């Protein structure tokens, strides 16, 4: 069983994601800071930024906080904006592109633990 946990926004460190262009990630709650069975992360995608086609070993769910950007999932493109929610199944090929002039931001919830990410083509 995990203990209650509160983290202040000022305590979250954001780092660039190596395989992507213009994507930063901050782990809001995760195993490394006392989280339970889930990890909650916040991503920002800069204007002109993109994430190449890839798969994850685990499923993840996302909630768009701000901006507008395109998400490709299994060959279909989806325009998303603040308030939209996504479910990306484990093993689904997906990618992101921000053609706008404002950053996009989203929350991403995943099961805690290791996740193997494989870049596609």
Automatic annotation (TrEMBL):
<protein>
    <submittedName>
        <fullName>Cupin 2 barrel domain-containing protein</fullName>
    </submittedName>
</protein>
<dbReference type="InterPro" id="IPR014710">
    <property type="entry name" value="RmlC-like_jellyroll"/>
</dbReference>
<dbReference type="Pfam" id="PF07883">
    <property type="entry name" value="Cupin_2"/>
</dbReference>
<dbReference type="InterPro" id="IPR053146">
    <property type="entry name" value="QDO-like"/>
</dbReference>
<dbReference type="InterPro" id="IPR013096">
    <property type="entry name" value="Cupin_2"/>
</dbReference>
<feature type="domain" description="Cupin type-2">
    <location>
        <begin position="42"/>
        <end position="109"/>
    </location>
</feature>
<dbReference type="InterPro" id="IPR011051">
    <property type="entry name" value="RmlC_Cupin_sf"/>
</dbReference>
């Amino acid at each position: 069983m995990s203990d209650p946990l509160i983290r202040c926004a000022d305590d979250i460190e954001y780092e660039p994601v190596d395989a992507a262009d213009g994507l930063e990630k901050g782990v809001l709650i995760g195993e490394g800071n006392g989280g339970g069975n889930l990890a909650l992360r916040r991503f920002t995608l800069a204007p002109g930024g993109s994430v190449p086609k890839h798969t994850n070993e685990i499923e993840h769910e996302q909630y768009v906080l701000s901006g507008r950007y395109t998400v490709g999932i299994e060959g279909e493109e989806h325009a998303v904006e603040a308030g939209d929610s996504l479910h990306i199944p484990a093993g689904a090929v997906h990618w992101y592109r921000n053609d706008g002039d404002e950053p996009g931001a989203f929350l991403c919830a995943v099961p805690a633990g290791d996740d193997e990410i494989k870049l596609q083509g």
